Amino acid sequence: MKANYSLILLFFLSACFAFEGEQKVDLATEMALLRQEIDELAQSKTCLDAEEWNFTALGSKPCGGPWEYIAYPKSINVPEFLAKVKRFNELQEQDNIQNNRFSDCMYVSPPKSVICQEGKPVFVYE
């Protein structure tokens, strides 16, 4: 009798892991594609004038808050870019919940500003 319960439990757990695995792959694939698009847009221009750049929070730590900040040129389609960032953040938050992710829970301070160095945006912190 005990063996039957073990088989039922094993079947149930394997079904859960199989379902979670499919969701995990779907989220990971979409997040990877979005991250690539976000990076390509953010890096699509040379940083020559810091006034032409802004930044936004990127990622979602399991404890809350972003993983990092990303600089982007104001000359791109900003609403489209920010929509991609928002979707990425939402997917990462969903992935954190579904897969019981954890992190260091350290607060990531936003930069004070952006400057240009050798054609690349660089964050300035206090």
From TrEMBL:
The lineage of its organism: Bacteria, Pseudomonadati, Bacteroidota, Cytophagia, Cytophagales. It comes from the Bacteria. Keywords: Coiled coil, Signal. It comes from Algoriphagus marincola. Residues 1-20 form the signal peptide. This is Uncharacterized protein. Residues 24-51 form a coiled coil.
